[in-house]
Design a protein that fits this description.
169 residues, mainly alpha, Rossmann fold, two-stranded parallel ribbon, 11 helices, 2 strands, 5% strand, Sulfotransferase, Sulfotransferase_dom, transferase
Length: 169
């Protein structure tokens, strides 16, 4: 199992834009309204921090590889190589480069109308990291940090994300 996790602040940011783009998901007038519901666990699909907490129970199993979205963005080639190794898939250097190119955000966004239809423009918005800084107030950032510390900071998954939540923030 490959478990891809992401900075909770960027998850909230992406989810806010997603929810306002999909008719079947409740939309929000303002970021503040969304943030309130997100922190109160009132958004569709539940609480991301609880999701991470549940997955943490399995994080040490040898048939589970955890990788962060941020790691993949920082070094796509190394990430693909590690994933291929985990699944026992040998890759030549040429194959590795093809996978890196075809799985890049830009490539997937470009082909999203073929692969995801009308949801493509909603699913493939920016693909970056730290976009949360464009929405979060200082108080909201502190609230998310506090919730992170309470729920998962000391766990294996929390330790993996902590660097991206604080050090790279």
């Amino acid at each position: 199992i490959l478990l891809l996790i992401r900075n909770p602040k960027d998850v909230a940011t992406s989810y806010y834009h997603f929810s306002n783009g999909v008719a079947t998901v409740p939309s929000y007038e303002t970021w503040d309204d969304f943030f309130t519901d997100f922190m109160a666990k009132k958004t569709a699909w539940g609480c991301y921090l609880e999701y991470l907490s549940e997955w943490n129970k399995y994080a040490d199993k040898e048939d589970i590889m955890t990788i962060t979205y941020e790691e993949v963005k920082e070094n796509p080639a190394l990430s693909v190589k590690n994933i291929a190794t985990f699944f026992g898939i040998p890759l030549t250097e040429e194959q590795l480069q093809v996978v890196v190119e075809r799985s890049s955000f830009q490539s997937m966004k470009k082909n999203s109308d073929k692969t995801h239809g009308s949801l493509g423009n909603i699913l493939f918005r920016k693909g970056g990291v730290s976009d949360w800084k464009n929405l979060f107030t200082e108080d909201q950032s502190k609230k998310m940090d506090k919730a992170f510390e309470e729920h998962i900071a000391g766990t294996k998954l929390g330790k993996k994300l902590k660097y991206y939540l604080y050090c790279k923030a």
